[in-house]
Design brief:
The complex is a heterodimer.
Chain A: E1 2-4, E2 8-10, E3 16-24, H1 26-29, E4 39-40, H2 51-70, E5 79-83, H3 90-95, E6 103-105, H4 112-125, E7 131-138, H5 140-147, E8 167-174, E9 184-185, H6 201-220, E10 230-232, H7 236-246, E11 258-260, H8 261-265
Parallel strand pairs in A: 3-4, 5-6, 5-7, 10-11
Antiparallel strand pairs in A: 1-2, 2-9, 3-8, 7-8
Helix pairs in contact in A: 6-7
Chain B: H1 7-17, H2 23-50, H3 55-75, H4 79-86, H5 88-91, H6 94-107, H7 113-120, H8 126-145
Helix pairs in contact in B: 2-3, 3-6, 6-7
Classes of the chains: A alpha/beta, B mainly alpha.
Amino acid sequence: MHKIGKQTICFDNPPTILEAASIVGPKEADGPMAKYFDKCLDDEFWGEKSWEKAESKIIRETVNLVVAKSGISNTDIDYCFAGDLLNQCISSDFGLRDTNVPFFGVFGACSTFAESMCLGSVFVEGGAANNVICATSSHFCSAEKQFRFPLELGNQRPQTSQWTVTGSGAVILSKNGDGPYITNITPGKIVDMGIKDANNMGAAMAPAALDTLVTHLQDTGRKPSYYDAIITGDLGHIGKDILSEMIQTKGYNINGNYNDCGVLIFYL
Amino acid sequence: MKEINTQKEYNEYVKQKSPNSPILKDCFNAFWVGGLICSIGQIILDFCKYKGMTDNLAATTVSISLIAISAILTGLNLFNRIGKFAGAGSLIPITGFANSIVSPAIEYKSEGYVMGVGGKMFTVAGPVLVYGISTSVIIGIIASIF
């Protein structure tokens, strides 16, 4: 692997995304992506006594599922990169304590999954591992409890507020495989454009997404049309709008192939 | 659009991109639901007086009844739906105050009765209590001087 441009890593022997698995909650199961998830839950507790325990169970079962689907043995997994939104990443820590795989706790808030895949792919390409698991989870109820208000509180959500996904996703990255490959990664910078409204996360995150995307295109010398799809994490409708408008001022047009997971996952 | 370089420019741009709350609809719903809650209070008050309670006792009974109704509706997962619809209409009367104490109590029950329910019960209502009681103390002192 080698560095190209300002902040992009180019892999000479790109790692393969060997297998992926996902488990989601009931609201996500009602969304347009429902048929692509491995398992949809009927209730947010999933038989547990607290939101946090439920989230731990979701990530544990997702990781078990991705290992089972891949057909490789648990002992052939070298490292696990995982994280979540809760304090000290307790969902992942408690959820994955029985996996017996060396564990890297990752915190990147909304970017945790992409971040864990960046780190995992560097480990695989660098020869430190043959197979790694990258996973993340979030739970609407545990996130609301930790960051906002109790669910039973009778308050109103502003038009710009976003809805945290209840669910977990996991992938296995492998040295050997026929793709899909991770060929380049461009870790982003922290970009703060001074948005103080905690109910407008899309607007707060869009400038960082813009910076990362533009840097990636400059570093690789590619145009947006090179890609079949350009996907951001969870900018939501407002953030997505802001990104696709602002990138035009930088001389790029992504309207044809750009989408956002936060927009895709729910019916609005 | 032109290129955005400063935080100020970006904030103005975001403000223009973000949809506003439907203020007329919100105000209308808050008005009639708030009015309805107050009317229920008035009905309880008149009923208590009709049954021969003193003014003071009747007024206290109104507060206790509305708090009890609000707490039960919170426990039944209904008050948050009323609040989502009515906003300040159900939040500003004593019903909202009851809801703001019962809802964290329910939410944090999973963390135990001492550190969970006991410790976190006032996380939402805390500022109201601190500044409400402080203000009443200050006004009480002023009133006693003059």
